[in-house]
Structures are given as C-alpha cells and as structure tokens.
Amino acid sequence: MSFIRKILTVDHVFLDLDVSSKKRIFEQVGLVAENDFQIARSKVYDALFDREKLGSTGLGQGVAIPHGRIKGLKEAAGFFVRLKEPIPYDAPDGKPVRLLFVLLVPDHASELHLQILGELAELFCSRTLREQLLIETDPAKLFELLGGQV
C-alpha cells in the first residue's frame, strides 16, 4: 500500500518554485499548510528547521526529504516541490537540490513517519523517475509518477 498516495494531493505539487534557500521553501510549505490544515505556518517552519539542525535531509542526486513532526496535525501530509533552480542543501554527495518531498506528520506518528520516509527514499532511488520529475510539466502527471491516482 502506497503511503504517498494517501498523503499527497495534486494541489500539493509545486513546479518550478522560484526560491533560493531552504528557509524560503519551508516558509512556502508553511503557508500552504496553514491554509489547508489550519496549522500555524511558524509551527511548520520551526519543525522543518529543527529537523535540519540534526542533519541535512538531503539524500543526494538532487533530492531532499525535509520532514517534521507537527503538534495538532491530524494526519500526515506531503508536498512535492520542484525548484526552478537547484539550491545548496548540504546533501551527502555535495550536489545542490532541485527535487523535494516535504513530509509533515502528527507528533505521535513515529512508525508511520519511518514507513513514509522509507517509501520516499526507495522511490527517489530511481534515476529514471528523478529525470521524469525534472521534465514533466503537468502537475497531474507528476502526481501520478509519485504514486498518486487522479
């Protein structure tokens, strides 16, 4: 069973976001989470940055999976972000990041959190998928590539 299918919606697929730092990405996701889930954007921003302080969530190959636990969030939520230009991210391979899957989970969802992270890491291991995610222009098709069903 795909966890990604359960947590990602087409409305949470953002293509060619024009930002230059992690900070700006986290602010944008926080704004969307505030509007869609009534969770203060500052909670989202702080949770994502607190996790980054423990170590970079960059996987390598231009991919990162920033994630955070959010008190008051009822269900896990995902956001796919493709950046207009890659940004420095402290990934293990030193490469900048252009593809991000931002994961927010309720503060008590430890097992689910790990299962989703595992699924995402496995998904992004595919070079073919990463290449498709970089060129696809239709958010609905991109959503399908990530395991969603329109």
TrEMBL record:
The keyword Thylakoid does not apply. Keywords: Sugar transport, Transport. Gene3D superfamilies: Mannitol-specific EII, Chain A (3.40.930.10). InterPro entries: PTrfase/Anion_transptr (IPR016152), PTS_EIIA_type-2_dom (IPR002178), PTS_SugarTrans_NitroReg (IPR051541). Coiled coil: none annotated. It comes from the Bacteria. Residues 6-149 form the PTS EIIA type-2 domain. Signal peptide: none annotated. SUPFAM superfamilies: Phoshotransferase/anion transport protein. Pfam families: PTS_EIIA_2. PANTHER family: NITROGEN REGULATORY PROTEIN, PTS SYSTEM FRUCTOSE-LIKE EIIA COMPONENT-RELATED. This is PTS sugar transporter subunit IIA. It comes from Leeia speluncae.
